Description:
Layout: H1 2-10, E1 18-24, E2 32-38, E3 44-49, E4 56-60, E5 66-70, H2 84-97, E6 123-126, E7 133-136, H3 147-159, H4 173-176
Antiparallel strand pairs: 1-2, 2-3, 3-4, 4-5, 6-7
Amino acid sequence: DQEAWNAYVYDRLNPAGDHHEIWxxxxxxxxxxxxxxxxxxxxxxxxxxxxxxxHLYMSQSDKGSLVFGGDIDGYNSYAQRGNLPLVExxxxxxxxxxxxxxxxxxxxSWGGVMDMSMDGSPIITTGPLPxxxxxxxxxxxxxxxxxASGFAFAYTIAKDHPHAINAPYTLDRFDRGIxxxxxxxxxxxxxx
Length: 192
């Protein structure tokens, strides 16, 4: 049906607010970017790479600064300064994508402890005590920043039992030996 095909290809919802788009830097390196842009203000909320680029993210803060980060240390550490070789690796990935950022000054850096579960998936559930709710173990996945996780956690608190979205993300999955093979882990699962 030609009408259905045209509707599928050309008709798009035009939501007010954040919209996820794929852009290409066609005037330069031709890299594909995953961009979150507000349709109201046209401000860019975040930019990621729509290709295998290792662990790297970049976004713009509310004050206009660039915020970027990447992988975690390959060993257990409670240091608050980060690992310089790893910082350099993440910066080199950033500069490979955006060479024009080579002259940007690094104002400050952060390193710290990340709450990671054994399987790299979050824990969003009721806690072991009445009135206790857990939302932790996020590792470095992007699901924590989505409206779906907020909705699921709000539902869990309001109803005192997990929503279907977060039902697998319970704390007792570790006791039962049912770990989650998280598929929302980015384009380089070998790095997880």
